[in-house]
Amino acid sequence: MISKINNHSKNKLLIYFLIYLTFIASFVFGENSSGGSHRDFLAMQMYLDQISINFKQGIALFFEEGQGHSPVFYIIKSGLENVFTKTASDVLILTLGFSIPLVFYSILKKQFIGCNKNLLFLISLTLYLSPYIRSSAAWATNDNLGILFFALSISKFLTYRKSQNKNLKSIFLCFFFIVMASYIRQYYVIITLAYCMFLYKNISVKYFFYLGIFSFLISIPGLIYTYYFFISNFDYAAKGFTSPDIIFNLLIFFNLYLFYIFPFFFQFETLNTFKNFYDDKKLYIMVTVIVFIIIYLFYNLPIVQFGGGINYKIYQFLESELFFIFSSFMGVLLILLTVNLDFKNLLTLTLFFFMFPFSIIYQKYYDPIMIIMFFGFIQSDLMRNKIKLNKSNMIFVFAYFLIFLIGSNIYYLNI
């Protein structure tokens, strides 16, 4: 028995090692399958250089240029480059990005206790096919560090929620990591509202107060920076944050939910589930159909050069609004099918959507955190049953995301 466990561990280590080599290859050859990581690297290089030369002037440059990125990652990167070399710091950041699926594996084991760990391991490996994780790792951008802190936060939250003695250390670490994620990418701060919702009535008022004070204290530098940034760059904030097209952003959200979650449910047996689903939720389906007919008849999809996600690019190629709106409609149906329709889940999805109140929505915002959120935070009896019964079609899942990765590389090589 012990020998069998050791063999499984060795096999997993070998798989991790081989995948790590592909990350090194991505670094050497400059993989840019996300389409934006190389551009982000070039755009942010002057900020990094300035922070390395003069810290105070480097921070001032963020204000002067109206740069919406938090400077924290670039402070960290500059420090690493001063201690090590630029190449060594890039490889270290690459390795941190590589560790995201490892943390995701720990999330899956906590969320699906007693289920087949080999299946959970395979699910976690799908993140290695993310063009956005791979490109961010190759170009040492800030995205992966924010995702890593976000995943660590969910992992600690699940440790707290699943433990019988409710270890307070875990929940304090949960909030510490989500604050750190917010220092890298500010939009993660909204996840704290989801945590507070789950903790309501599950933690004493005294410890809830301590948790609030703790989170506030470690957030003070970020709050001060954000206040002065918005004061000095109000026009930028108004343009980017107060004028999103909510309908368009919702359509993108539903499209991306379909894109990322559908593969995990693709099986012929699922057709029977859809039949039962239709019988149970006729009213929801009828309302959804009416809403999308109205959208199709009276809403004009905006024409944007950037963002929108993969289905929006396909819509532009086909010149078919029907395709984009219908795929969004299918995304809503998939939510109704796969998510337990309770208050906490619906509020979590709502908060997740409002994480990105931007006028331009890029697919990278939801990749891979859409998958991490679904498996780590959303309650889905259908998914739990599929995992318990080992009915996830992982061959299809890997083929699906591998095609997406290869296609992304080809697409952006030709631009």
Could you please describe the fold and organization of this structure?
The longest helix has 28 residues, at 2-29. 35% of the residues are buried. The protein contains 22 helices and no strands. It is globular, with a radius of gyration of 22 Å. It has helices at residues 2-29, 37-53, 55-65, 72-83, 86-98, 100-111, 117-125, 131-139, 143-162, 168-184, 191-199, 205-232, 234-241, 246-261, 270-280, 282-298, 310-318, 321-338, 343-353, 369-376, 381-388, 394-413. The mean pLDDT is 88. The termini are far apart. With 415 residues, the protein is mainly alpha-helical. 75% of the residues lie in helices and 0% in strands.
Question: What brief labels describe this structure?
Answer:
415 residues, mainly alpha
Please state the CA-atom Rg, rounded to the nearest Å.
22 Å
Task: Classify the secondary structure makeup into a structural class.
Answer: mainly alpha
Distance between the termini: 53 Å
Low-confidence stretches: none
Overall pLDDT score: 88
Number of alpha- plus pi-helical segments: 22
Helix content: over 70%
* Beta content: under 5%
Number of strands: 0
Order of helices and strands: HHHHHHHHHHHHHHHHHHHHHH
> Which word captures the global form?
globular
- Biggest sheet layout: none
